[in-house]
From TrEMBL:
PANTHER family: PTHR31375. Keywords: Cell wall, Cell wall biogenesis/degradation, Glycosidase, Hydrolase, Secreted, Signal. It catalyses: [(1->4)-alpha-D-galacturonosyl](n) + H2O = alpha-D-galacturonate + [(1->4)-alpha-D-galacturonosyl](n-1). The keyword Nucleus does not apply. This is Exopolygalacturonase. Belongs to the glycosyl hydrolase 28 family. It holds the Pfam family Glyco_hydro_28. Its EC number is 3.2.1.67. It comes from Canna indica. The keyword Zinc does not apply. The active site is at H244.
Amino acid sequence: MASLITTSFFFFHTIALLFFSPASSAVTYNVLSFGARPDGRTDSAGAFLRAWSSACRSRSPATVYVPAGKFFVSKATFNGPCRNSQIKFSIQGTILASSDYSSSSGASKEWLAFNNVNGVSIAGGTLDGGGSRLWACKLSGNRRCPTGASSLTFGNSKNVAIDGLTSINSKLFHIVILRCENVKVRRVNIQAAGNSPNTDGIHLQMSSSVDIVQANIRTGDDCISVGPGTAHLWIERVFCGPGHGISIGSLGKGQGFQEESVRNVTVKTTTFSGTTNGLRIKTWGSNIPGQVRQVVFEDALMKNVQNPIIIDQNYCPGNSGCPGKNSAIRISQVKYKNVRGTSATPVAVSFDCSPSNPCRGISMQDIKLSYQNQQAQSSCKFVNGDASGFLAPPSCL
Ligand SMILES: *[C@@H]1O[C@H](CO)[C@@H](O)[C@H](O)[C@H]1NC(C)=O
């Protein structure tokens, strides 16, 4: 049914544009009509941007339609505000980035970005970030490799939906939600090599009311990273692995924010397979203040995960600037409920909190984690809380 409708839009959009009154009905802008070429080589960035500006200028709901085929887009920033608040990007095909990271667009931190929009949704499609050459550069230890661009960024936007999108081989993060409000991410499929550097699946920062439901994320860095300023986040039915797991933080790096806080996060019904971490909270050993509170981790299945449950307040990669410093981020009201499966290391539960700001109100209920068919261990430093129900490893709270 859906394909029938899109096919008829495909054929009749010109007629629709000519005859339908813009005030009363939705219009579709097919990128082919704006000069896009589905040959995987011709740069279609200009055509995508022209289709976008037509949709954005429309006073009635509008669809930008990307049909089947491979469209090379060097870089595109879709800016709002728009005249309507119902713009759909309906994608059947694949959008390809350049694999040449040294080109001019390679210097940008963003490949496809939406800024200052309200009511934009993306439905379907595949984004191919072409990251493998940049990963190889980074993996070779060459310090002059560029950072690379995140594949899809929403910035300063509200009422955003991403549904049924596949994102592969990003150069940097796959999806970034920055300064947004009310974002629904559904049924996304994210894939990059397990050793690809910095290819986080979904990164959030300064955003509230974000739902991520039904995601399949296989990547080389965090599956989902929850950055400073995140509130009211709901994560449900997410598969992670390979990768670094779901991480709140790192916080306290000092990225120019006065305070780095995260509150009201629910992470429910997750599976982690072969990841370095499962459910992680990490803060730098630094004096940047902040809080992490009201977090619920519920119903998680771990399969051979190195650190299934971990709070690390002494995060200090490269050991520069932070050794010996205590984190000033206060962690409280964190609940772990029904977490089961296998740990790849003897310590399945590790709470390494800040000596000057101990974790408070950490609660554990029904934990069943084993290590090589033996009892796993828990480790507690500067943490207060309570435990109930079945507990393996035994609680150290
Ligand atoms: C927490 O966030 C959820 C959405 O994930 C929201 O429905 C709920 O009202 C929030 N709770 C509080 C106390 O703000």
